[in-house]
Amino acid sequence: MIRFVDLFAGTGGIRLAFEQACNDLNISSECVFSSEIDKNAAKSYELNFNENPLSDITKVDFIPDFDFLLAGFPCQSFSYAGKQKGFEDKTKGTLFFNILNILKEKKPKYIFLENVRGLTTHDKGKTFETIKDSLNSLGYNIDYKILNSSEFGVPQNRVRIYIVGVLNESVKLSIDNNLGAVDTNKYTKGLDAITINDILEDNVGEEYFCSDKLQNALMDIVGNDLSKLSGYRFSDYRNGKTIHSWDIGIKGDCSLEECDFLNELVANRRKKIFGTHQDGKSLTKEQILTYYNGDFNNMSTSLIEKGYLKCTDGKYKPVCGNMSFEVFKILDNDGISITLTASDSNRIGVIKNNKLRRLTPRECARIQGYPDSYKLLDNNNAVYKQMGNGVSVPVVKLVIMDFLTSLASIKCA
After folding, report:
1. Whole-prediction pTM value?
2. Residue 245 CB contacts under 8 Å (≥ 6 apart), including other chains
3. Fewer C-beta neighbours within 10 Å, C or N terminus of the chain?
4. pLDDT (tens digit, 9 = 90+) per residue, 62-109?
């Protein structure tokens, strides 16, 4: 029997994966304590595990004895003031400090931690070095892997670090690091790979569909087949496979010449010839006239009146309306999703039956590898946030199974 605790538990994705792994390996397990500070996430957790983990781990004064610590802890900066400072001083004030305190007091045999890929480079690598050194100082030998969910049966470009540790025992994962495709649009579908097509619901409510105005505006651009927009993004910062606010007339219709002017401005304001102080620069009239041959005065006046162009101190830039788009990305149904985030999961688009709509909460859960038996809270905004903050369940399960089978101290049937 493995007695485990589930810290920074979220909606229970790590626990779900851990219990799945234990079941597959015929290892009995019991969760003796769980903790999550977000009220809605705690409600989702209770809905699926029949216990409410709502608590502030920094204020918890009693945790039962346990064998295995699970934690998807937040990434925070550590203090490096003073070269002679110990690990406890360096981590004080961070949530990782609370993990260390629990490990120091309870001395569980095993640990599993999950975090964002940037943990390894955060603060020029110092954050991760402190984490490793802190765990080593308590007697834990660790191994870690950086994995892209898209390479392990999850239709999402999500790169995360997975850390395992054992007290006073060596540990070595057999899985290789796998970063997958650098760009979602460059994903190469492998044999039996799961794609967006596989996770789409057949019947969804009208509230998920984009407005007729947007659908019609897009058809004016590409014709009647909206699937041509697969992989496109909505943004006023970039060109390429991009739909801009002026292309679809969010603030009012623009002529072809006005669209061309704005597209050229977006492209040229990134060029180093106009300065290297930032990527998207404001340009003066003189700079714009080095590549634009039309009637600048009339063009700029019209676009300023329509709200697509802004002039400050004699410099011009597009007025970017990214948050006004109904969706900000259209997924390729034959590919994978971009990384789900807490703030934007509700604005990822898909085209099905030639209609543009947003992903549903259930589809977001599927993109994270949650089974349909996992119950979703009756609060769409909360679920979108939770899935953006969550883990890819099959990847966590894979790492934990690899970890458990590698240990001499655990017998797997």
Report:
1. 0.90
2. 234, 236, 251, 308, 320, 321, 324, 325
3. C
4. 999 999 999 998 765 554 433 434 445 555 557 888 999 999 999 999
CA-CA distance, 344 to 326, in Å (whole number)?
A: 11
Q: How far apart (Å, rounded) are the C-alpha atoms in residues 370 and 10?
A: 13
| Tokens found for residue 91 | 């981590």
Contacts from 406-412 at CB under 8 Å and sequence distance 24+?
A: 406/171, 406/172, 406/173, 406/174, 407/110, 407/166, 407/169, 407/171, 408/169, 409/109, 409/166, 409/169, 410/2, 410/27, 412/25, 412/26, 412/27
Residues designated catalytic = 75
Q: Are 312 and 295 in contact (CB under 8 A)?
A: no
**For residues 95, 99, 100 and 104, what is the CA-based torsion angle, rounded to 10 degrees?**
150
The pair of structure tokens assigned to 49 is 């595990």
Question: Which of 339, 338, 352 is CA-nearest to residue 198?
Answer: 352
Two structure tokens written together for 221: 């651009």
Place of tokens 């490793």: 132
Q: Please name the residues in contact with 257: beta carbons below 8 A apart, sequence gap of 6 or more.
A: 294, 299
Q: Provide DSSP, 237-257.
A: S--SSEE-TTTTTTTS---HH
Token pair, residue 68, equals 């295995």
Q: Nearest-CA neighbor of 398 among 34, 48, 74, 25?
A: 25
3-state secondary structure of 99: helix
Q: Which amino acid is at 33?
A: F
